[in-house]
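#structure-requests
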Amino acid sequence: MTQADFNIVIPSRYGSSRFPGKPLHLLNGKSMILHVLDRALESNAQTIVVATDDERIAQICVEAGAQVQMTDAAHVSGTDRIAEVARVLQWPDDCIIVGLQGDEPATPATMLNQLADNLAIHTDANMATFCVPISDMAEYQNPNRVKVVRDHRGMALYFSRASIPARRETNASAAGGGADFPESFIHVGLYAYRCSYLQRFATMQAADIENEEQLEQLRVLFNGGRIHVDLIQEAAAGVDHPEDVKAIEAILQQKF
């Protein structure tokens, strides 16, 4: 498969209600944001930019030789921050941009390359992302795990915190299934964007369904956009809370 040309933007902010200062937290003696940079550098990306509103994050990245773009502190999402970078740097409309969050130090470069390739191949998609199979009822019912339903081409039909698709028939054998819940998938929050669509997205008003679910990707679907969702078997672990640090350090030591 032909490798797509793409850029990576790493949105990274210091303020976090669950883990303040997270990008600068040391993992195996090295700041988290620098581990994320390593993953980006291992990919096929042509350009890598750290997008931040914090001088402390900017300084450590510049010292490591990274390109940094200071962005508006008022941004409410990483997507908005990525859109500002693309606009300021005047990237062309057909540019593919992969957003790698600053708290995902264990995302393998192969996933970043695959995501960009998927968007390049599916020319009618505005964005691309991933999903993984749900393996147990607890995960299926967990409102903190975002589910996605796709069409036959892998295009997203809907994302929800609810348990979707819902099985009307409660008896698994009567429904023709072999489990207590239907085949279902967890969304993996890693995105590739077409630059032209990213700029359009930044001007769209939040949709009611987005506000209800607190899922910004629903703004895309509400406005008629297409999101390709590729099925992978395992998602990379991220860091949401301080309690996640030990597990991530073990993964980094083992795999990277």
